[in-house]
Write a structure and sequence with these properties.
With 135 residues, the chain is mostly helical. 58% of the residues lie in helices and 7% in strands. A three-stranded antiparallel β-sheet has the order 1-3-2. Helix 2 crosses helix 3. The chain is elongated and about 50 Å long.
């Protein structure tokens, strides 16, 4: 049975970040990014992480004559959305308001962040505000 993409672990997420940022990559390239001081054992670790991500349908392997190349097929925004909905369900009874309020109160925001947040809320209001609403 294939794992769900929302079951991605912290290290698997680091591997996905490399692929999202750099595009299709070899295992060696990913090792150099995730474990800069790595060695042979780290290569095997990344290989196992990629196998698990492939099973979860988060990455695709392109088999080459010399080195396999891996590409992220999991959408970053979709994964973020699933993770945040899971946190909201687990910690906030399904409401995103406490989650967002906490983040705005406790995290350093750039000068652009408040305007970006307002723009997203305005866009949602223009669409009718129903998408993603708690049921």
């Amino acid at each position: 049975m294939a794992r769900s993409p929302q079951d991605v672990t912290g290290k698997e997420l680091e591997v996905l970040e490399v692929l999202w940022e750099n595009g299709p990559s070899t295992i060696q390239h990913i090792v150099e990014q995730v474990y800069p001081d790595g060695g042979t054992s780290k290569y095997a670790t990344v290989q196992k992480l990629l196998e698990r991500l492939e099973e979860a349908e988060c990455v695709r392997r392109q088999r080459g004559a010399r080195a396999h190349v891996f590409e992220a097929i999991a959408d970053r925004d979709a994964l973020i959305g699933r993770e945040l909905r899971s946190v909201a369900e687990t910690l906030c009874g399904g409401s995103v308001t406490p989650l967002l309020t906490h983040l705005v109160r406790t995290q350093r925001l750039s000068a652009r962040d408040p305007a970006e947040l307002r723009a997203r809320i305005d866009e949602r209001d223009e669409r009718g505000g129903k998408r993603g609403a708690r049921r």
